[in-house]
Amino acid sequence: MTQKEALDILKTGANVFLTGEPGSGKTHTINEYVDYLRDKAVEVAITASTGIAATHIGGMTIHSWSGIGIKNKLDKYDLDRIASNEYVSKRIRRAKVLVIDEISMLSAGTLSMIEAVCREVRQNSEAFGGLQVVFVGDFFQLPPVVKKEEKNPQGTLIEEDNVSIFACDSNAWERTSPVICYLGEQYRQDDTGFLEILSAIRTDSFEEKHFEKILSRKIEKTNFPKNVPKLFSHNVDVDFVNTETLSKIEKEIKTFTMSGEGHDVLVSILKKGCLSPEILSLKIGAEVMFTKNNPKEGFVNGTLGTVVDFKGDSQYPIVKTRNNKIIEVEPMEWVMEENGKIRARISQIPLRLAWAITVHKSQGMSMDSAIMDLSEVFEYGQGYVALSRVRRLSGLFILGLNEKAFKVHPEILLKDEMFRKISLEAERVFGEISTERLREMHDDFIVAMRGKIKKSKGKGKRNYSKKRNKN
Asked: What are 18's strand-pairing partners?
């Protein structure tokens, strides 16, 4: 399915699961839809399953938005308490559309709790209390972390009929009955041979010929290519590499401290999810990665470069990117919006040290090259996420591998086949609707949501994640 076809379906007000391979344009498509809704004055709640993902999109975690916090069970008392919380209930009632990004990392039980809260607060027995719900993500990527005792905790109002941890197997998902929009375009990888390898992992058809190609990119620790970031499974490895390498540069250190404004709790959430550290230490010669999108200035989240100087009085870093562009890097803001208003903001230099980064934090990035140690991969999807960050095979450098590096979850293999078939059927059904009738459906939904029907002039639009590239 193309992005335009998915957008046409979204605009009808149908509940949707927007999915596709890494680099297929999921973020770009949902950005376009959010722009459209805001242009029509329809209130949209932008959320994500993790703090990092939420920070990327200028929203909040779905846990905070729904008021469930860190709970793994929901009893009648909890439900009453959340529904009576004026701050939480007001935002749930005001919303017309709910977007949940990185749905793969949200457990089945948690999604059902959120759905129950929406029904209770909105006093509406329909799925999610009548909200249009848009799930965004790819179940081949990182799965939710669920402890055994959390699957069906005692005393909860929410019980699942199966033992699957995935949101797509939850009762809430079934109640929502989303249209599957499986994007088939590719905007990240431009290497057909590498795409074949990624597809083989995704379809569990990874063979010896694919393994040999990956193995051909293996390097020794004594022969690291210069100025290439490393991806590790664990934070401790990342912190050690970055701290140790910076300390070896015999230059003056410059420190930049993050500032925050707004409710303390919300500011704390933004800081925790931000890829730029709260205290950023740099030196001339430091390898860095941009953590924000600003195509106008020549960088996006994942752009690599080297600090070559610090600017005059401000002492802001001057970075030379890999394509030899010189950028004077000034602080940028990460904001949390709610009901069209900024509830919290943080400001920091949009950089982080880039000698190393975790696989988890690389999710959503597009990288020209990376050194990967996949010998300690411990979860389905970790290896796939790491490999799919890189644009082409020539940019891949492997330190180590283990058996799980090329494995995807067996449950998701079956689900993915079903998702593709349902998406093709949706593409056929909606493709038979005339352009005029489709436009009427779009307008009918806006009217039903008490929005404003007007011709878009292309001005005044706001992008919830500020990401205008298609990666």
From this structure: 136, 181
